[in-house]
Amino acid sequence: MEMGRKHIPALLLTRVKMGFRSYRLCQAIMFNCSFPQPISLASRVSHEEVKKWAESLENLISHDCGLAAFKAFLKSEYSEENIDFWVSCEEYKKIKSPSKLSPKAKKIYNEFISVQATKEVNLDSCTREETSRNMLEPTITCFDEAQKKIFNLMEKDSYRRFLKSRFYLDLVNQASSTCCGSENQKGAKSPTLDCPLVSQCA
């Protein structure tokens, strides 16, 4: 006998809905399709750029739209803490004032690395201990090793799945359709897709 909806655990239903919502939100972001949230354009992404995202993880997350799509994909897998940590480290390295390093470092550590971290990332014990020691006197490079480990983890695991997911494949198809549709237009510029702010996908 088929299991009724009322017998499905509420948590499972919530997670399914969250995953679908992340996918719909990412579609809205990448294609500027209709979505019940205001979308403001910040940049445009070309067909060539989309193809470059399949060449390396670095190409993907160095582009605002690529980062947004990848983050939405990770969110659907409940592992967005990895990209959140990577982004936080990138922002941390841009800090100019020495007085702001320590409080920001502690915030990142408490959120992603400590035993009681709310979004704990998967680090080996040696890297975790090294990073913990770095907290005694935080420097601009105190998260470098941990960030490198998380990048490598995403590169070997989630990035490969992302390239096979509908988050990326739908974008490739959309970009390809846009490209083909403009080939016969004399003097047409390189086709692009509208890309709103990355924060829409957070």
TrEMBL record:
Residues 56-172 form the RGS domain. Keywords: Lipoprotein, Palmitate, Phosphoprotein, Signal transduction inhibitor. SUPFAM superfamilies: Regulator of G-protein signaling, RGS. One of its GO terms (biological process) is negative regulation of signal transduction. InterPro entries: RGS, RGS_RGS4, RGS_sf, RGS_subdom1/3, RGS_subdomain_2. The keyword Lipoprotein applies. The keyword Cell cycle does not apply. SMART domains: RGS. Inhibits signal transduction by increasing the GTPase activity of G protein alpha subunits thereby driving them into their inactive GDP-bound form. Activity on G(z)-alpha is inhibited by phosphorylation of the G-protein. Activity on G(z)-alpha and G(i)-alpha-1 is inhibited by palmitoylation of the G-protein. PANTHER family: REGULATOR OF G PROTEIN SIGNALING, REGULATOR OF G-PROTEIN SIGNALING 4. This is Regulator of G-protein signaling 4.
